[in-house]
Amino acid sequence: MSWRDEISEDAKAILDTLVDRKKKYDRYKTEYRALTVFAFALTSLFLIFIYINIARVGKETDLLQFVDHIMSNSHFMLVLALTIALHSYQRLVKHLLEKTKKKYEELRKETIDWFRTSWWKSMSSETMDQITRDMGKQGINIINKS
Asked: Cβ-count burial of 44 within 10 angstroms (0-12 exposed, 13-18 middle, 19+ buried)?
């Protein structure tokens, strides 16, 4: 018999919501990591591009001529625009990641408190073990708050 048959609909809804929030959190975390790597590569490309143009223009050129030379290059402008856009998007994803993590952690702690109530303690230990094992397989700790 599955543990889902032995618990209330409220408990199932909370556990399903917790699993959904964990998946959403993991998705944002993966996306943020990929964006960080891509932003690092694009920023490195941007800095290399500036270094190459400094070497090409030479020491005798003043700053305004250098800026004019770089700004007239369409490849540089494209890399600059992509770098700015990517960093802006990365910042947005980081904000969403932190917001999602906060919601996930609050629900996880609420779930732990809720499952420590008297009905949870009156449930068979086998059912409790099945629930914690199934949640653990998905990376969700409902045993400890920390």
From this structure: exposed
